[in-house]
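Input (structure):
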C-alpha cells in the first residue's frame, strides 16, 4: 500500500507503508543485525588489539563483498566464533543486508509506520504529557529532533522543530549526522530542547556514545529558561547491561552538567528528561563491569 503526500512545494510523493504485522519483525531483525555487528567488532578489536568500528573497518575487512544476507545459523554462531576469516565473512553479509539489500530502508519505513499516531508510538507524546512546563511555553520553544522519522510528531505542535536523520525519508527532515552538525556560533542556532529517541543505542562504540552525550550542551540554550534533553533507549540498555544501570547513567549525566528530572521505565523502553544545570565535572567513566550474567548485553558509555 502507498500513501500519497505533498511536499512543501506541492509536489506529490509516495511513502511506502508496511503492514502492521510485519513492522515489529523488521525492526527486531534490524536491531539484531546491528547487535551482531557490534559483537563482531568487539571480537575483531580483541584479535587486532585495536578498536575497530564503522570508521575504520574498511582498513581491515578484505573479505569479498557478499551477495546474500547472513543465515540464522551464522548469526547464532557469532557469539562463539573465533575464526577471524569467518567473522569477516559474516560481517560482509550483515553489511549486505543492512545497506545493499534494503535493510536500513525497510527499518526506517517500519519505524516511521510505528511512530504514527494511530499506533500510539510517538515518543514525544510522552514527553509533553509528563513535562507540563513544556506545554506552558507552547510556540516559544525551539527543538532539535535527532533521528527524526516524521514531521507529524507531537513535538512540532509545541516547538519550532528542526528534524535531522542520517537517511531522511520525507521533506522537512534534514539529512544530517548530528556528530557532523556545525557547532552553533550564537544562540540563534541553539535549542531549548533536544530529542534523541532510540538513537544513542545505534552509535556503534562506547566512546562514540560518550562523545554524543558531551556534544549536546553545545547546542542548548543555557540562559533561556528551558534547556533540556529528552532520551529514549531500549529498556535493556539500562536494566540488562553488564556496564550500565540507572544509577550509572545518572552519574554520567551529572558529570556532563545535567540533572535527570524525569525517568520512566515502560515495557520495552526507558524515557528520560535531562535538564541542564551547568555543574559539570572532569570525571572520567571507563567501561567498568557493574553486573554480570549469561543473557546480559554490553551496552556502555565511555567519557
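Output (sequence):
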Amino acid at each position: 500500500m502507498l500513501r500519497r503526500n505533498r511536499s512543501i512545494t506541492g509536489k506529490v510523493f509516495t511513502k511506502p507503508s508496511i503492514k502492521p504485522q510485519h513492522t515489529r519483525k523488521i525492526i527486531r531483525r534490524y536491531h539484531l543485525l546491528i547487535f551482531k555487528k557490534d559483537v563482531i567488532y568487539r571480537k575483531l578489536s580483541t584479535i587486532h588489539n585495536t578498536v575497530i568500528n564503522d570508521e575504520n573497518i574498511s582498513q581491515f575487512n578484505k573479505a569479498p563483498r557478499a551477495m546474500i544476507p547472513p543465515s540464522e545459523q551464522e548469526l547464532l554462531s557469532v557469539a562463539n566464533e573465533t575464526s577471524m576469516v569467518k567473522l569477516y565473512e559474516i560481517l560482509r553479509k550483515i553489511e549486505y543486508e543492512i545497506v545493499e539489500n534494503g535493510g536500513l530502508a525497510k527499518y526506517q519505513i517500519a519505524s516511521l509506520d510505528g511512530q504514527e499516531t494511530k499506533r500510539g508510538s510517538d515518543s514525544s507524546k510522552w514527553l509533553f504529557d509528563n513535562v507540563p512546563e513544556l506545554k506552558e511555553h507552547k510556540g516559544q520553544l525551539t527543538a532539535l529532533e535527532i533521528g527524526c522519522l516524521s514531521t507529524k510528531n507531537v513535538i512540532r505542535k509545541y516547538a519550532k522543530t528542526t528534524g535531522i536523520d542520517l537517511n531522511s525519508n520525507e521533506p522537512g527532515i534534514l539529512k544530517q549526522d548530528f556528530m557532523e552538525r556545525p557547532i552553533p556560533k550564537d544562540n540563534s542556532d541553539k535549542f531549548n530542547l533536544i530529542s534523541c529517541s532510540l538513537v544513542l543505542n545505534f552509535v556503534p562504540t562506547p566512546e562514540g556514545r560518550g562523545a554524543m552525550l558531551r556534544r549536546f550542551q553545545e547546542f542548548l540554550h543555557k540562559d533561556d529558561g528551558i534547556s533540556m534533553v529528552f532520551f529514549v533507549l531500549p529498556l535493556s540498555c539500562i536494566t540488562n547491561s553488564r556496564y550500565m544501570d540507572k544509577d550509572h547513567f545518572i552519574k554520567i549525566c551529572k558529570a556532563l552538567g545535567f540533572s535527570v528530572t524525569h525517568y520512566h521505565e515502560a515495557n520495552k523502553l526507558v524515557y528520560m528528561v535531562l535538564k541542564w544545570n551547568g555543574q559539570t565535572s572532569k570525571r572520567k567513566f571507563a567501561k567498568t563491569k557493574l553486573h554480570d550474567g549469561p543473557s546480559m548485553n554490553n551496552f556502555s558509555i565511555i567519557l
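Notes: The first strand starts at residue 2 and ends at 6. The radius of gyration is 20 Å.
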